[in-house]
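Sample intake sheet
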Amino acid sequence: MLTAFKPIRQLYDWTLGLAAHKHASWALCGISFAESSFFPIPPDLMLIPMTIANRAKAWWYATICTASSVAGGLAGYAIGYFAFEYIGAPIIAFYGLTEQMAGFQQSYSEHGLLIVLIAGFTPLPYKLITIASGVFSYALLPFTIASIVSRGARFFLVAGLLYFFGQPIRTFIEKHFELLTIAFTLALIGGFVAIKYLI
């Protein structure tokens, strides 16, 4: 195993062990909530190993991710709507998107629903879209419905694949862990690069 991947592999192994912990669901809830409003790491990093470790709870874990992520998305919306200057703007600046934000309003007003759906399901940084939704006062009801649909589709798809093909997927992950880590990292980086062009 490459030395550079040892900490990540240790985190994966630790998360597998965490699945049996009485507070595992709360940790998944917290990460799912935070990722939708400010935290850079997606909850999939906990959802996947936790579901692999306890396939019987796959649907429960997906429900936790979906509900917490949508709640976090509403928090991100509130940040954009009520506190953009003090909280939202520093978050946007942290991701290097301050300049793009200024020109985003027109495309968002035309394709807001589609943007929320795409960001909620793909590696695009969903937190930036939730904040933008608040900044541009996008209608709260379609924002919430689109968040439920896209986040639910994403997390239940992951949980479903792991539920029905758990052991082969676990074997595949553990056999090709380094390559999958690289692919996941590139997808995450690609999401942030793509959002620069989107906004």
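Comment: The first helix runs from residue 6 to 18. The CA atoms of residues 105 and 136 lie 7 Å apart.
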